[in-house]
Amino acid sequence: MTPTPVQFRSSHGDPAAWMPADIDSYEVLADIAQLPPLFDRYMQAFETATKHLGACAACRDGRPCTVGGPVHDRFARLQDEYRGQQTQDRG
């Protein structure tokens, strides 16, 4: 499980003694902590992909357009990530 920034600070002691890699790791964890929960991002991507699919004939015909391709790719990536998280939580 990914630690929160608070857990990271607790386990790594005084930030003044951190190595550059520790600082980098902390900054990444702080960025992650600011992201909305995975489920929310997944549902937002689903809504965006569904709306786009309804409005784009090319994407409905299985030929993703330049806008739809990345939209549908993001949805698929987040769906896979969410399903993987659900599997880990159950296992």
Account of the 3D structure:
The radius of gyration is 19 Å and the shape is elongated. It has two domains: 5-34; 38-90. The two termini are 13 Å apart. Helix 1 packs antiparallel against helix 2 (20-34) and helix 3 (38-55) packs antiparallel against helix 5 (68-90). It is mainly α and 91 residues long. It has helices spanning 5-12, 20-34, 38-55, 57-60, 68-90. The longest helix has 23 residues, at 68-90.
Strand portion: under 5%
Task: Decide which structural class fits the backbone.
Answer: mainly alpha
Q: What coarse outline follows from CA principal-axis ratios?
A: elongated
* Total number of helices: 5
Query: Would you tell me the overall average pLDDT?
Result: 86
Listing every helix as H and every strand as E from the N terminus to the C terminus, the arrangement reads HHHHH
Rg is 19 Å
Question: How many domains comprise the coordinates?
Answer: 2
Q: Mind summarizing the main beta sheet?
A: none
Low-pLDDT parts are none
Number of strands: 0
* Helix percent band: over 70%
* CA-CA gap between termini: 13 Å
In short:
With 91 residues, the protein is mostly helical. It has five helices and no strands.
Tag the structure with descriptive keywords.
2 domains; single chain; 91 residues; 75% helix
What's the SSE blueprint?
Blueprint: H1 5-12, H2 20-34, H3 38-55, H4 57-60, H5 68-90
